[in-house]
Amino acid sequence: MSTLVSVKNLSKVFDVSKPWLNRVIERLPKAHLTATSDVDFDVEENAVYSLVGESGSGKSTIGKMVVGLLQPTEGNVEINGVDLASETDIEIIKQSRTDIQMIFQDPYASMNPRWRVRDIILEPVVASNGDTEGLAEKLLEQVGLAAEDATKFPHEFSGGQRQRICIARALASAPKLIVCDEPTSALDVSVQAQVLNLMDDLKSELGLTYLFISHDLTVVRHISDRIGVLYLGRLVEEGTPDQLFDAPKHPYTQMLISSAPKIDGFGREVDPPQGEIPDPIDPPSGCAFHPRCPIATAKCKSERPALRELDDNRVACHLA
Ligand SMILES: Nc1ncnc2c1ncn2[C@@H]1O[C@H](COP(=O)(O)OP(=O)(O)OP(=O)(O)O)[C@@H](O)[C@H]1O
Predict the structure, then answer these.
(1) Which of 56, 151, 164, 189 falls between 20 and 30 A from 181, CA-CA?
(2) Which pTM does this prediction carry?
(3) Which domains does the chain have, with CATH numbers?
(4) Where in the numbering of this chain does the ABC transporter domain appear (predicted)?
């Protein structure tokens, strides 16, 4: 298998200064938020790589840099050996744009409610002057809807059906890679499974590669070939689902696994992850997880652990 996506030392820093405050108070230092830092991973062709972490861990920021919606502050993303941020050949850029698509958590928000489904699905193909004859109908059938649905409007569908329409739109340009940002987290549990099964079938049929983003390790367990666990913008552990679930090496991965959503008889979540996520504008010293870590030592407070190979995993923990 060859590598389709290669993410190297990827960092994104946002300027979160308040311009009005900087005008009032002269020489006030600018405020910076490090959303992702030094992230490194490869995604093999026709594989599923999942990025997992709590809210604010930088998952979406990485997804947006991979599809080219955000520019990295440092590092780069290569798709099939092409770094879009520095590539100058317009034909290669155009081809790479159609090779990568993204689907989002809220399908309704990502489609124009006044457009018919056919126009929504064909938008990326029309934009690149591609052949649209019978394409929307074929794609609708491929995602388990009916060809006749092409003339309907988004409000005539359920949440799960709308996500199928978004998947059809993503497939319209025959992409190689789809970045899936929490594509099932707004759906009912039974519908989640149907959409995940559909995505799995399409992957085998069309040879697709997915970069899958989720806050829930259990959702990605069965669909992933590799999982990267993010904490405050950094990869803290990476391995196969079996390695992570059977022998998690980082205390944060252990916490995520032991606090995987369990619902009690009253529909309440039991055992949510313990402790507060630190402020990314002023992250903790040393290992960013140390304030929540049950086994942290003095070294963890002062020295940031590097991501290192351990057995077949990669882990960033002094104590692993
Ligand atoms: N455009 C932006 N400007 C400033 N800060 C941003 C911007 N986009 C994201 N951030 C911040 O970067 C950090 C990472 O955000 P990101 O959305 O990538 O996390 P996430 O893991 O995808 O979270 P969620 O699951 O809530 O979407 C957060 O602290 C967020 O507030």
Answers:
(1) 151
(2) 0.91
(3) 3-247 (3.40.50.300)
(4) 5-257
